[in-house]
Write a structure and sequence with these properties.
12 helices, two-stranded antiparallel sheet, alpha+beta
């Protein structure tokens, strides 16, 4: 039989048992669609996290007080606490030529009030450099003034949602709000920013860093955000930060510097592992579909014993019968995989329409793997019934009829 005859015979056999063919196509399609949709969600989560971090800038470094390290020996008799980061530490970082911007951060919660309206809000104390370092956008007014960070002018910038809740339709610029026991004049309003690294920037109050230290009576800094002059200068910037702080802290390495690349790499590894795990779980459904094909074809061999005997009586070899059954399994897996791929891609498209900021898209390796596993498992599981059909004796097969 020619290859064309084999394809025609296999297709005719599938059309002759529509219900059985439909069920096997459905099982294979569900398996492939599951792999495509789950990997698309995992890839979408990875791209979403990467995009959020990239929006902060590609050469950002974060300086934290304390150092992550493993120490040996007995514990000290007296308690040791990491040395605090101070505003002078932050200002000293400008000595490095690799540093472009430095934004010290003081963080806290405080009640914010205007006339009869008040609510609690997250307060960020920083400098004018916070605007370019965090890539913030203003909707109205201006950001913090570029003055000596040690000064504490009574001005503030409100997040978009906080400004709406406090002032409603009334203008906010130039008005005075009460923050804890102090009064601040509103000089700017942020455009809608959404959440960034767990902070809802639409509900924050940004004030000068010295003012925040006064409000919270805290001379130490929460973090220092440093922007390198270029992405290529990240390593040198990190080393300069360590050297400068060490020289100010009596030779102690008591800070941790995190680069954005390190944070991104960590999230990438975690989300990539999760994507592979869910893809592996979904791939189990493809194996189940392969087992279903094997069982159905075993029944088919029993039902088609006379047909197989007639083929052999007309001169078909065992190899030809084996090829016919494997071709049927191949066609089933191919059409089922294509149907599942269409369903999976359609579901991903629907996700993208409903949640545009979540870039759901199945990676090419997942699509290729799903199609490959579908074809391989179906043919492997079809080998047993195909060999059983090929080994039938034509005389005995026809005598059963």
């Amino acid at each position: 039989m020619s290859f064309r005859d084999v394809l025609w015979f296999a297709a005719a056999a599938l059309r002759g048992h529509r219900l059985r063919t439909g069920l096997m196509l459905l099982a294979m399609a569900i398996g492939v669609a599951s792999v495509v949709v789950l990997t698309a969600l995992g890839e979408g989560a990875r791209n979403y996290v990467e995009g959020r971090f990239t929006s902060l800038g590609t050469h950002l470094l974060i300086v934290l007080p304390g150092r992550s390290e493993t120490k040996g020996g007995p514990p000290p008799l007296l308690g040791e606490t990491p040395r605090d980061l101070t505003l002078d530490d932050a200002l000293a970082l400008h000595r490095s030529p690799a540093v472009d911007k430095v934004a010290p951060l003081v963080l806290g919660n405080a009640p914010v009030a205007w006339k009869q309206r008040d609510r609690d809000a997250l307060v960020l104390g920083s400098t004018a450099d916070l605007l370019p370092v965090r890539h913030l956008t203003l909707a109205q007014g201006q950001f913090l003034p570029e003055t000596d960070p040690r000064r504490s002018p009574p001005v503030c910038v409100l997040g978009a949602k906080l400004r709406h809740e406090l002032f409603g339709p009334s203008p906010a610029l130039g008005e005075w709000v009460r923050l804890s026991e102090y009064r601040f004049r509103v000089i700017g309003v942020l455009a809608e920013q959404g959440r960034s690294i767990g902070v809802d920037l639409d509900e924050v109050v940004i004030i000068p860093v010295a003012s925040a230290q006064r409000v919270f009576d805290a001379p130490s800094l929460f973090r220092i955000l440093v922007s390198a002059s270029s992405r290529e200068m990240l390593a040198r910037t990190k080393q300069d930060i360590l050297d400068i702080i060490r020289s100010r802290h009596e030779g102690e390495d008591d800070i941790t510097v995190i680069t954005q690349d390190a944070v991104l790499a960590t999230f990438d590894r975690i989300l990539q592992a999760l994507t592979l795990v869910v893809a592996g779980i979904a791939a189990i459904s493809l194996i189940v579909a392969g087992i279903l094909i094997m069982n159905v074809m075993l029944v088919a061999v029993t039902q088609r014993t006379t047909e197989i005997g007639l083929l052999k009586a007309l001169g078909a070899s065992s190899h030809t019968v084996l090829t016919l059954f494997l071709t049927e399994a191949g066609l089933l897996s191919l059409f089922g995989a294509c149907l599942g791929l269409a369903v999976g891609q359609g579901t991903s498209w629907l996700f993208r329409q409903l949640v545009p900021e979540f870039p759901v898209q199945a990676p090419l390796w997942a699509i290729a793997s799903a199609l490959g596993i579908a074809l391989v498992t179906s043919i492997l599981f079809a080998l047993l019934p195909a060999r059983r059909a090929a080994q039938l004796d034509p005389v005995q097969a026809l005598s059963q009829h």
